[in-house]
Write a structure and sequence with these properties.
The longest helix is centred in the middle third of the chain and has 18 residues. By secondary structure, the protein is an alpha/beta fold. The protein has a 7-stranded mixed beta sheet with strand order 2-8-7-6-5-3-4, with helices on both faces. A hairpin with an 8-residue loop joins strand 12 and strand 13. The relative contact order is 0.17. The protein is globular. Bound molecules: pyridoxal-5'-phosphate (PLP). Pyridoxal-5'-phosphate binds next to helix 6.
């Protein structure tokens, strides 16, 4: 029998991709320059030159058989050593290659670690708004996803978090800088979360792991500090991706790093290897993992996203739209005028503006605008946004 859960996951909920597909069709009718597609969080900036230089060198100097062969499941030893060294030197937490497992972006890091850390019937807490795929990974792991609403500024609400913690809680997923709100958790918030989890873990008699999902770590604006959660809380698994920082979402490269001091580290490592195997992740591309490892600490020219952020935020705020200025990532999370995000998205669509209802992120009443698009698209969309604002009487 075909399992119902896969039918459900496969036939619903892919709102973002459906909207983007609509945008592509609509562009054929009215012309791409007249469709203001702000749906997908896919980088619009080229990968850095260094990435191509490294690829070029690898292709010229490594034999094709060696360059395109299977890698070990956890990743090449040299790559895992480079990642461990980079994390240790950058964040002051002492990692070894035995903590690092290369993955197909943050997505598979999350799928693997949730499968590895959760048993049937356990709960994973997420701070809402959140990346929709978390629910699939948690349920695939046999767990239940529990939403914890954030405060009005999309910062953690500690009382709300404490209220949702139970003896069944095994994991809390934290995503900062956040998709879709752009909020960055402050060091004080991380400290407070760590204190609360330590207290509750002692009370329950089992660890509560933080899964830190950080594909946007480098995408912050101004002098905002992104606290490195493993430095505050030992039971943290750090999930990273090169999709956004190097503009390589299609290459599928990332890693997860078990904190060296985490409870049951060796069992967790074995479980990660087992989950990766069970989920069919044979290995990450031998060539791309080497190229990414040489680009640790390098980014695409992400300063361009700041220009987009400034324009989108200031223009929309001036028109009367209400949103918190994002400190990171490349999204603007806008309060839907009238409170109905679905209705707002439909009205926006009539003007060929495509944005995503916040319902998809566990936060109805808001819409997400992905500003990782060419600057010109934002500029050209402003008259349509103005007309929309007028329709809502802003
Ligand atoms: C918060 C968050 N986590 C994880 C991912 C997965 O990204 P990838 O698998 O490309 O690394 C995304 C992608 O947009 C994201 O926004």
């Amino acid at each position: 029998m075909i399992p119902k859960k896969y039918i459900t996951w496969g036939s619903s909920g892919a709102v973002i991709r459906e909207l983007a597909a609509y945008g592509a069709e609509r562009a054929k009718v009215v012309g791409p320059e007249n469709v203001y597609d702000f749906t997908i969080g896919s980088p619009s900036i080229e990968p850095p030159k260094k990435f191509f230089d490294v690829l070029d060198r690898l292709m010229k100097t490594v034999s094709p058989i060696e360059l395109h062969t299977y890698a070990p499941a956890a990743g090449l030893e040299s790559v895992r050593a480079a990642v461990a060294k980079y994390l240790t030197e950058t964040f002051g937490v002492q990692y070894s290659p035995n903590d690092i497992y290369m993955t197909h972006g943050a997505s598979s890091a999350l799928a693997i670690i949730l499968a590895a850390l959760m048993s049937e019937g356990e709960e994973a807490l997420v701070l809402a708004p959140y990346f929709p795929e978390y629910k699939i990974y948690v349920e695939q792991a046999g767990g239940t996803l529990i939403e914890v609403p954030c405060d009005e500024d999309f910062q953690v609400d500690l009382a709300a978090l404490e209220a949702k913690l139970t003896p069944k809680t095994s994991v809390i997923i934290i995503n900062s800088p956040n998709n879709p709100s752009g909020a960055v958790l402050s060091p004080d918030s991380v400290k407070a979360i760590a204190e609360l989890l330590n207290k509750k873990a002692a009370e329950y008699g089992h660890p509560i792991y933080i899964v830190a999902d950080e594909p946007y770590r480098e995408l912050v604006y101004g002098d905002v500090e992104v606290p490195f959660i493993p430095a505050y809380y030992d039971n943290t698994v750090y999930c990273y991706s090169f999709s956004k920082s190097l503009s390589l979402p299609g290459e599928r490269i990332g890693f997860l790093a078990l904190s060296p001091k985490m409870t049951e580290h060796d069992n967790a490592w074995a479980a990660v290897c087992g989950a990766g195997r069970a989920l069919g992740y044979v290995c990450v591309s031998t060539m791309f993992q080497q190229a990414a490892a040489e680009c640790l600490g390098v980014t695409a020219d992400i300063s361009k996203y700041d220009d987009n952020r400034q324009l989108a935020y200031s223009a929309l705020s001036d028109m009367g739209f209400n949103c918190v200025k994002p400190d990171g990532a490349f999204y603007l999370f806008i309060k839907a005028p009238g409170g109905d995000s679905q209705a707002f998205c439909r009205k926006a669509m009539e003007k060929d503006i495509l944005v995503v209802p916040g319902d998809a992120f566990g936060c109805p009443g808001y819409v997400r605008l992905a500003y990782c698009v060419p600057f010109d698209r934002i500029k050209r969309s402003l008259p349509a946004f103005k007309a929309l604002a007028e329709e809502y009487g802003l």
